[in-house]
Amino acid sequence: MYAMTSVIALALHSRHDLPSCGNATEPGARFCASCGTTLVPACESCGADLADGARFCSVCGTPVESAPSDTEGIERKVASVLFADLAGFTASSADADPEDVASRLGAFHAAVRTDVERYGGRLEKLIGDGVFAIFGAPISHEDDAERAVRASLRLQKHWRI
Questions:
Q1: Which H or E run includes 21?
Q2: Over the stretch 13-59, which tens digit does the pLDDT of each residue have?
């Protein structure tokens, strides 16, 4: 944690401000006069100042821990999202028998799941008569957007969406 704070403070010091307080600092200062944040990274073993980009302490030879990357282990993917709900469902079910509403929703949810999975998507949320599906995560395909559209068209064909 200390190494990461030091790296951030060094990077911001060249602009003469600090992450913790935002106050300007004097060039060459080792600590912030307002909050006391160190501006120069130090060796965790012996406390000696570390040069910019040093991989080892020049005094004791201890390896310098680099700050962990915020994006380590993260893979960026493009995904397509499908949201659909039944047109007029709320108005039509206001005075309907609850068992009929539940039956209609059950059939709709089953059909959506079948159609979404048929095209390689994953049903993420069922919110009453609304459904949220994703194509391209966790497994992506080159044509995920087309798959989402095909699933949507199939749903529109069989349901009033």
A1: none
A2: 333 444 456 666 777 777 777 777 777 778 888 888 888 788 888 88
What is the C-alpha to C-alpha distance for residues 54 and 43, in angstroms, rounded to an integer? 10
Instruction: Express each pLDDT in 52-102 by its tens digit.
Output: 788 888 888 888 876 555 556 677 788 999 999 888 898 989 889 999 999
- 41 in Cβ contact with 10 (< 8 Å): yes
Question: CA 24, CA 17: separation in Å to the nearest integer?
Answer: 5
- Identify the structural domains of the chain with CATH numbers, from first to last: 1-71 (no CATH), 80-158 (3.30.70.1230)
What letters, b where the CB count within 10 A reaches 16 and e where it falls short, cover 47-73? Answer: eeebeeeeeebeeeeeebeeeeeeeee
Contacts of 93 (CB under 8 A, 6+ apart): 100, 101, 104
pTM over cut 0.90: no
Which residue from 52, 74, 161 is spatially nearest to 115, judged by alpha carbons? Answer: 161
